[in-house]
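User: quick one, fold this
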Amino acid sequence: MSFAVRQFENTVISGGAPPPPPPPSLLPFQPTSQGFGVGAFNVTVPGASGGYNGPSSMFVEIGGPGGGGAYSPYLTRSPPGCSGSGGSGAYCSSTIALTSANWGQTITITVQPGPAGGDPTYSFNGRPHSGLSFAPSPLNSTVTGMGLNMVAQGGWGGSFTPNVSGATPGNPTGGAGGNSSGGNTSNQSGHVGGGDTALPNLSHGGAGISGRFISSGAGGDASHVSGGDGSPGGNGAAAVAFS
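Assistant:
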C-alpha cells in the first residue's frame, strides 16, 4: 500500500506592531538674502533645518567703493571752474550650484569704505591717488572661499591736474572706474568720473553699477562750493542670496 505525502509550505506570520511610517519629506528651502555694508564677514551656507531642505543655489555680488572727488581751487579764480570727480567702483557677481556637501561651508566677504575727497591742506586730488602714501591704489571689495576669488576694485579719485596716475585718456581729470574679476555671472567696470568743468557746469562722480540687490560705490563729486572739500566716494557693498 502506498501513501501520498502532502507537502505544506510553512507560512510565517509576523506579530507585534506594524512598521513605523517613513519620515516626512523635507519642505523646499525658503529663499533668503542678506546685504552687507563696510567690514569683513563670514557667511555660512545653511543646511536642512526645521523640516526644510537646504539650499541648492547661492548668489553673491560685491561692489567696490567710489573714488573721492577733487578739491576745486579754480572756483575762486577767473574763469571759475570745478576739478575732476571720482570714478565709481566695479561690480562682480557669481552663482554657485549647491549640494548637501556644501551645507556648512563658509565664504569670506570684505567690503571697503569710500575714500576721502581732495582738500586744500593735504592734497587737491581725491583719494586714492598717485602720491598719497596712505591710499596709493584703489581699495578692493572681495569674496573668497568655496572656490571663489572675486575682486571689485574701487574707483580712482578725481584730479586737480591732468596726466596723473589713474586718469582716463580723453577725460584727464576724471578718476577711472574700478575693474573687476572672478565673477562667473558678471564682471563690470565702474564709470569714469566727470572731468574738470567751467561754471556754470559742474563735475559729478561716476554712477555706481547696479546689481540685483546692491550698487557699487558712486564716485565723489568735485567740490562745487568755494573752500569746500571734494566729496568722498560712496561705500562698497555686498549681498548673498540662497535659494
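User: anything notable?
Assistant: The first strand starts at residue 32 and ends at 36.
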